[in-house]
Amino acid sequence: MSELGDGTRCVRAGLPEPAPGDPFLPGPVFAAPYHLDPWQGQGTSPNGYGRPDNPTRRLLEAAVGELEGGDCRVFATGQAAITGLLLTLLRPGDTVVLPSDGYFPVRAFATDVLGAIGVRVLFVPTVGPYPSFEGVRLVLVETPANPGLDVVDVAALAAEAHAAGALLAVDNTTATPLGQRPLDLGADLVVASGTKALTGHSDLLLGYLASRSTELIEAVTKWRTTTGAVPGAFDAWLAHRSLATLDLRLARQSANAAAVAELLAGRADVTAVRWPGRPEDPAYPVASAQMRRMPGVLSFDLGDADRVGRFIDAARLVAAATSFGGLHTTADRRAQWGDDTAPGFVRLSCGVEDTPDLVADISAALDAAGGV
Ligand SMILES: Cc1ncc(COP(=O)(O)O)c(C=O)c1O
């Protein structure tokens, strides 16, 4: 059979073989211990104790692994996956390259924890220039980067990292595995927050890591089991259920982002509009070559915090909220969280509302917000 489409892959991802009388997606298995064989202990059973073993979690891992094209391990949150990766791989004396313009808690963790245990941390902007990777153990990039939406050529970076003996990990949160497949582009690892567009209903926290290397997956699994950074069965089940509609949600979010970016770019009172899917965007040449689909997230500048407040207040369809990738359109003034962004910088995450409704609402809210 030829390669299945995204919608087909999402709706079938990780489901068990059909059996008469069984549900399509089995319900969550709530268990801390499982029954053991009184003589052989766990024996050949896949389930002994809930921290290492849960069948609901394994089905979700099969699903995300199928979409990323590798083996997957899910974590309680994206931060748990990323910090788990860093602490699994890095030892005192190692050097790691991290994005200077990516998700800021990763930078805080690197400075506070990695720095304190003697790991050398180099912060580099997503667009580079990158230093020589000689002596580097791990390069982690976010592409598109949150919140600035810059993009880096993953295949080129993978070649450079591998030539120097370094590993390349890509944070695939913003793109999702439908937007890009970093393992196909040569990355060794994918990490991501599944809290965002992957699950998309703003009702759970999740993280994951994927790789084609058995050795890396085993090391990370061991880390997860000993630290206990696992999601609960209900969240894992909810995530799997939500994953089935990723293709549909992303299609609408992306179409909405295209229309909103067009609207914003055409207004003299909005500056610094960024969306990697716009041909005028600096990220477009690389993004359009390496990405399969564009995200629903864009950014722009309204000049100051007060105007951002007036804009969100006036909008009926834009909620003030952090996070992104959900069903509802949300706006976040990133400077309030400590991102190194201008005071009026807004990250807008387009939801699945009807495009004309969203464009009309944002347009009217900007009119109502007035100037700086
Ligand atoms: C790019 C990126 N990576 C990782 C994370 C962390 O994910 P979580 O909030 O699920 O821990 C986030 C959260 O916003 C993110 O935007």
From TrEMBL:
The modification N6-(pyridoxal phosphate)lysine is found at residue 196. GO terms for biological process: cysteine biosynthetic process via cystathionine; transsulfuration. It comes from the Bacteria. Its cofactor is pyridoxal 5'-phosphate. One of its GO terms (molecular function) is pyridoxal phosphate binding. One of its GO terms (cellular component) is cytoplasm. InterPro entries: Cys/Met-Metab_PyrdxlP-dep_enz, PyrdxlP-dep_Trfase, PyrdxlP-dep_Trfase_major, PyrdxlP-dep_Trfase_small. Keywords: Lyase, Pyridoxal phosphate. PANTHER family: CYSTATHIONINE GAMMA-LYASE-RELATED, TRANS-SULFURATION ENZYME FAMILY MEMBER. Belongs to the trans-sulfuration enzymes family. This is Cystathionine gamma-lyase.
